[in-house]
Design brief:
301 residues, alpha/beta, Arc Repressor Mutant, subunit A, D-Maltodextrin-Binding Protein, domain 2, 5-stranded mixed sheet, 4-stranded mixed sheet, 11 helices, WH-like_DNA-bd_sf, DNA-binding, sequence-specific DNA binding, LysR_subst-bd
Length: 301
């Protein structure tokens, strides 16, 4: 009959997989080789599965062992996030204000808001994380951030968000591109252009593809990247053109030709909080600075 794995058994199994031998695993865990061997045998006995085989002096995963290792890795990542949350909460009483933002907002709107905020709260220390949308949502659920800035409102009752700025996507190209002679760039103008795009599951990219479809156009991406900043850099080098949010485009304003894009693709910025965490006074003041920065800064054309 199978039994539940103990935490020491799981740790030993993980260490052996990562190092390849029980000797190296023992060094990693600061224990002895016989102890690791015993824990591995206990783990195989508890599960009733052959998890490892000896291949010329190194321990290799069986099919069942690989599946178990993948499950363990996923759960250890969760433990790591919990440990991060504990560390962040431990620091929060020492004047640390924790902000998460998508890369585009982290390089454009966020520094402007931080500059205004620091004038009134010079003693506050920031912890800033630039992350993808899913990572931001996970962090908010764990209480890692006092506020988050994103371009999409997370789904779920555990989040509370407010729109702080509304803009529209822009077309970016090199300074000497023919688009520099235009006031606007339309979807039809993108025909025969080398397009630098975000992955197909990005919200802005999906709207762009819908604009192509409505125009009866089929346009394949020639260069794909996960970062809007990469699109801007490549466009500035004349490698192609891109349709991006106006926040990141503004960072490269001196190196890019930035034009309004038609049809309009709306880009909204949200300030998001975890609903289970009451907004602190600092968070409320920071939100006000975000709103003021949106009014002052020029994002886009």
């Amino acid at each position: 009959m199978s039994r539940a794995l103990s935490f020491p058994q799981i740790e030993a199994f993980k260490a052996v997989v990562l190092t390849g031998t029980t000797v190296a695993a023992a060094r990693m865990l600061h224990t002895t080789q016989p102890t690791v061997s015993r824990l591995i045998n206990q783990a195989q006995s508890a599960t009733g599965l052959k998890l490892l085989v000896n291949d010329r002096g190194r321990l290799q995963l069986t099919r069942e062992g690989r599946h178990l290792f993948e499950i363990i890795q996923a759960n250890f990542q969760g433990i790591g996030r919990i440990e991060q949350a504990v560390a962040a909460l431990r620091e929060s009483g020492a004047g640390v204000f924790r902000v998460a933002a998508t890369p585009s907002l982290g390089q454009s709107l966020l520094p402007a808001a931080m500059e205004r905020f620091a004038q009134h709260y010079p003693q506050v220390r920031f912890n800033v994380q630039t992350l993808g949308r899913r990572q931001i949502e996970d962090g908010l659920r764990l209480g890692l951030y006092d506020i988050a800035l994103t371009n999409s409102l997370p789904d779920g009752a555990e989040f509370e968000g407010t729109a702080v700025h509304k803009a529209q996507a822009v077309c970016v190209s090199s300074l000497n591109h023919p688009f520099a002679k235009r006031d606007d760039v339309t979807v039809a103008d993108l025909k025969d252009q080398v397009l630098i795009s975000l992955p197909g599951d990005d919200a802005l990219e999906m709207e762009l593809q819908e604009a192509f479809r409505k125009k009866g156009m089929v346009h394949s991406t020639k260069i794909e990247t996960i970062y809007t900043s990469t699109i801007c850099i490549y466009a500035s080098r004349g490698l192609g053109v891109g349709i991006v949010n106006p926040y990141m485009a503004s960072v490269f304003r001196d190196r890019l030709c930035i034009r309004n894009f038609r049809p309009k693709i709306r880009v909204t910025t949200y300030a998001v909080f975890a609903r289970f965490m009451p907004q602190s006074e600092l968070a409320q003041h920071f939100l006000q600075n975000v709103v003021e920065s949106c009014e002052v800064e020029q994002f886009g054309v």
